[in-house]
Amino acid sequence: MHNFTDRQRTKVMLDVNQLSVEAGGRSILHDVSLHLNSGDTCIIFGPNGSGKTTLLMAIMGFPRYHITQGNIVFHDREITHLSLDERARMGIGMSFQRPPVVRGIRMRDMINVSLGEHSFDGGEEGAVVVNLAEKANTTALLDRDINYGFSGGEIKRSEMVQLLAQQPGLSLLDEPESGVDLVNVPLMGRLINELLEKHRHIRDRERMGIIISHTGRILDYVNARTGYLMLDGTIVCEGDPHEILETIKSRGYEECAKCMSEKSPTQ
Amino acid sequence: MHERKEPDAVKKKARAARAKASPFGEDIDLGQYLSSSTETPYFDDLSLLPGEQREQMQQSGMALGEHGSRSGTIIQVDHSIIHSSVSQDGVEVMGMNRALSMYSWLSRYLWRAVPVDSDKYTAHVELHQNNGYFIHALPNARVTWPVQACLYLAKSELAQNVHNIIIAEEGSELHVITGCTTAPDQESGLHLGISEIYIKPRAKLTFSMIHRWTQGVAVRPRTGIIVEDDGVFLDNYVIMGPAHSVQTNPVAKCVGKGAITRFSSVVVAPRGSSMDVGSQVFLDAEGSRAEIISRVVSTGGHVTSRGYIAGNAPKVKGHMECNGLILSREGFIHAVPELKSTLADVELSHEASVGKIAEEEIEYLMARGLSRDEAVAVIVRGFLHVDIEGLPHQLTAELQRAIETSGKDFM
Question: A154 lies in a domain?
């Protein structure tokens, strides 16, 4: 599968090792391992409540997710105990499933914050902000309080705009297509492709992505190299994302997991 | 027009109310303050004002030449009017003593919007009045730039007892910015300000008041507003930084059909400050509307945030938002939103919240790379950013700058 000799290309840039995570006094993830090379995108499937979002939250560093075992290494640095904002500044970014409304903070301000601009004056950054917003068809939202009365699709697009401003090396995308109407799914696909530098040749691509998908619909627009299936807080299958999706569609999650255990009993 | 009250009758009422405590706020012993001050000289040229005074005035929203334009300016230091000027037709700006001697009709407006026997403070001002300002927008005048009024307390332990009147005549449009402040080292003092505001039919007044006090100052403004047919009254109140004790609860009466009143307040109370701040609107005429928005931050101070809307006529609408943020282990915020209606055909609603900043909001900003402290500062700044409807863009920017300058110590 690895046809590239380029060192950078084959280097593991995100290494999640045997991670166990607890939240609210409940153990949620058990022994989860996941690796991404520079430029890679993976997609995680799994039913509701299987722990997919918890994994993203733990990688991002949200304080209520306690890592009880294992570690996370990002760009050669162990980040297991770094704070949320330190990780963000190192280049990890996340699109929120249900971001909070923050009254008095406009979407424009959030884009400025994501650009690393802490002043709200607009100024020279104004044009950059407007360009980003236009790209995601969110110009009309710029001066509204962030997430206040946003539709499901508007939230998704606004999150993408903020990530495009932030330009993280690793993007954690939680169900980017859910709640997005049919016409806008291709747009989300384009935005994700831009965020993950899909226009660049894989040898030159550095940005990485982990995408959670319920339906797999996003695979029609975004290529992912690896698929994972998560059940009950554990990764039970790793392979070609399209194959996993087909198996889930035809036989269901549990059957898909069985196939995995048959093929690789060493897991 | 009401009959002119006999001065003796007014004085008699005032004397009878001399010991009448206010229902809200700490009871102030008026005897502990000085009642006389030395005359402060008049300044034609405001650039000659002492630097310290200029700075304090600017930080309470006054434009003294550098930024912002004004249609008129009036400044009172202690008991003296030290400057009064107008740069546009259609508006009159002068000290109250002068105005009362010039216009005999003006006394009919005294104590009509604020009853003289409301409490000991109104009574005290009637019995010991030291000037104040009169601002008058003539019929159909469009006053382009704001008129600014500054009340400055310079002498320590002084009681400043001012009586102000603003009249926006029929069809006029006027913005007034009032900055009330003190010398930066003021140890003690009392500011009693009566403001009576009259909005005639189809007139529109934006009244922005910025309070900037010191730890030792007690403040008891008494404000009454009467809004006639299709008149619009937009009030913005900003108080930041320390004050020993502030209690204010302006009363707006929408007495004309379709009258509109909107109060927006931004209150920041540091440790050692006690603030009881509210607004009341009586919707007494058909189709009148009210909105009260208050944003309160306690960084250790005690705040009671009141709101009261009464629906007394058919088809009136009122809405209130009282939101409080507590940023310190000390201090409290007590939100008291009240609605009252005497009939069914009204729409009154309120939302209130008090608490700390939601952790998920902080984390949302941290996930975009801000440190916890930066995230809190950005959220507080946003919280205090009340979108002020009907205000010219330049004035909004000025007010926002005043908020940020006043709040720079904690933001």
Answer: no
